[in-house]
Write a structure and sequence with these properties.
It contains four helices and eight strands. It is α/β, with parallel strands linked by helices. Strand 5, helix 4 and strand 6 form a beta-alpha-beta unit. Helix 2 runs parallel beside helix 3 and helix 3 packs parallel to helix 4. The C terminus is likely disordered.
């Protein structure tokens, strides 16, 4: 399994849980951050905006003959807010889109041939509530996360027949699942799930 953003707040928890479940986890990280990874994870220094670095990380994750690459978790991204649209420089707007969309695209694109060759697998991308409910001062961030959501939907459609699932998680809208009579779960087109209250 390949997990990007493995030393971030969410990434640390994801890597630790996956290792506890005996997954072989490969985590590309920025220079000097390999030592911060959870025990047992395989680290590789990589800039996920650079295609050659991404290909090297994916090759490492897919390099065990008896453990083909079956899953990718895209956690790399970042928040950037600021002024209203007319107050935001185009360079700042584009930078937040690049920071969130480019790594997700590059990693997913590099991993897909391996997932298809393995007979299928899963890709998980992280979007945000801002993608579906934007707020003032974060047009670039909302646009970036909406693009991640749209990209995941496209991958899910294109690779369904190859056995590859692509889902999107919106952490800011996930509640504790409800249990008991009448509780329901709503699933988006990308497959992300969130509980909804009984009517």
């Amino acid at each position: 399994m390949l997990v990007t953003g493995g030393v971030g707040g969410l990434g640390e928890a994801v890597v630790e849980i996956l290792r506890d479940q005996n997954w072989r986890v490969v985590a590309p990280v920025r220079a000097g951050a390999v030592g911060r990874l959870a025990k047992g994870a395989v680290g590789i220094e990589a800039d996920l905006s650079v295609p050659a670095d991404v290909r090297a990380a994916v090759a490492l994750a897919a390099g065990e003959p008896d453990a083909p690459l079956r899953a990718v978790v895209n956690l790399v991204g970042g928040y950037a807010g600021g002024g209203l649209v007319h107050e935001t420089a185009i360079e700042d707007f584009e930078a937040v889109i690049r920071a969130n969309l480019r790594p997700t695209y590059l990693v997913t694109a590099a991993a897909l041939p391996h997932l298809v060759d393995a007979g299928g697998g899963s890709v998980v991308c992280v979007s945000s509530r801002a993608a579906v409910a934007p707020f003032a001062g974060a047009a670039g961030y909302a646009t970036a996360k909406a693009a991640v959501l749209a990209f995941a939907n496209a991958v899910a459609v294109e690779y369904r027949k190859s056995g590859v699932r692509c889902n999107t998680v919106l952490p800011s809208v996930i509640d504790t699942p409800q249990t008991g009579p009448g509780s329901r779960t709503r699933t988006s087109r990308a497959g992300s799930r969130r509980p909804t209250s009984p009517r």
